[in-house]
Amino acid sequence: MKTSSAPPPSSHRVPPDVSERVSIARFLCIFLMMFVHVQPGIAENVYDRDAGAFDIVYFIFSRLLGLSSVSLLSIVSGYFVVASLRKAGAWRLVKSKARTLVVPLVAWNLLMLALLAVYGLISGNWHDMPEFSMMGMANALFALTTWPLDVPLWFLRDLFVCCVFSPALYAGLKRVPVITMLGLVAFMVFGDDLLIMQRPQLLLFFGLGMWLRIAEPDTRTIDRMAGALTVGLAIMVAIFLTIRIERILLSEMNPTLRLTLDTLLRVTMAGGFWFLTGAIRHSALARLCRRLEPYAFFLFCSHAILFNFGGIIFRRFFGNYGSDLFAITFFSLPVIAVVCAVLGLRIIAGSRVLLFLFNAGHGLPQPAQAEWKQTPATRQLAVSRTPEGR
């Protein structure tokens, strides 16, 4: 069943400069997101401490940049799914995403489970093993009601749910966009207890991306919106830094106020990241992001496993959060994760089975591809894996 008749491909093709900037943004967002998952090694709330220089740096990289970077990934995902709906229709889209989102979700969590079992046998520490019951294993592998073993992969789980809802969202955004967006806001506020998504907020950003693609504003209009949001970002950063310096715990805020502040930060951060991609587009940093972009999906899926076990070794040498040397762990692990992702994907590149399980079925791009051209595996984080989705 098609959600609508397919329009002429040329009328909905993403401009090359937008596609190039998406490639930059995707790797940059995933790299910054990794800082959230560097484990501090202490039980106490790291934000409930007097704010020294490193405490502020940690807060900026983990709470401001790291957590909020997911918002732009969600917008990009919604933006690209529209073309897949127009081309393939709802049923084929859902089947495709089951292969390219759910399969890696389960495969990486099974790998994490195996590694935890081996670690438990060696060390006698079984603390991180899931409850051995039907629901416990379902949560560990599929993140039905709690986080999966490979925690960041909740995003793949929620992204698949977004894809399932995308035909209804597409119809709503075409006919009554304002009412549909208000409905997504309501779901964000009241949807936690429904257990449909781990983070209902993600569907709002996904829908926003779909709305942008349906409305088809030109690049200059998008850049003007991003510029305005970047001004708002400066205000939100100032608010959040004040909260951190004054040791106001977000977890103890009124839930509605906390969600409002978090959403405003994520919306403005998405605009800020997009504005940044335009500013650095011709820089050495942008070229590096484009070269590493083919490894982004593998990096996204694998980094938390590395952090879980590598962090044990690093914290033994450099201490936990609060140690003068913890900064070495904090900044080294994301860089090491990039190196391991590059090596890991190259190692499994010759096996179709391993690529299917761990990289959405796609290998490395051919050398003849344009440097900035997105690879199908990476576009799993933007929901589109076919040329028409560009």
Task: Describe the protein's architecture and organization.
- This protein is mainly α and 390 residues long.
- It has one domain.
- It is built from 13 helices and no strands.
- Helix 1 packs across helix 2 (53-88) and helix 5 packs across helix 7 (201-215).
- The protein is globular.
- Mean pLDDT is 91; it is low at 1-11, 368-372 and 383-390.
| Shape verdict | globular
> What level of helicity do the residues show?
55-70%
Q: Uncertain regions: pLDDT < 50 for 5+ in a row?
A: 1-11, 368-372, 383-390
Structural domain count:
1
Domain Acyltransferase: 24-343
Keywords: Acyltransferase, Cell membrane, Membrane, Transferase, Transmembrane, Transmembrane helix
InterPro entries: Acyl_transf_3_dom (IPR002656)
Subcellular location: Cell membrane
Write a concise synopsis of the structure shown:
The protein is mainly alpha-helical and 390 residues long.
Ordered list of secondary-structure elements with their pairings:
Blueprint (H helix, E strand, L loop, with lengths): L15 H18 L19 H36 L1 H34 L10 H9 L11 H22 L1 H14 L10 H15 L3 H27 L9 H25 L4 H9 L3 H23 L7 H23 L3 H7 L32
Helix pairs in contact: 1-2, 1-9, 1-10, 2-5, 2-7, 2-8, 2-9, 3-5, 5-6, 5-7, 6-7, 8-9, 11-12
Family: Belongs to the acyltransferase 3 family.
GO molecular function, one term: O-acetyltransferase activity
Protein name: Acyltransferase-like protein
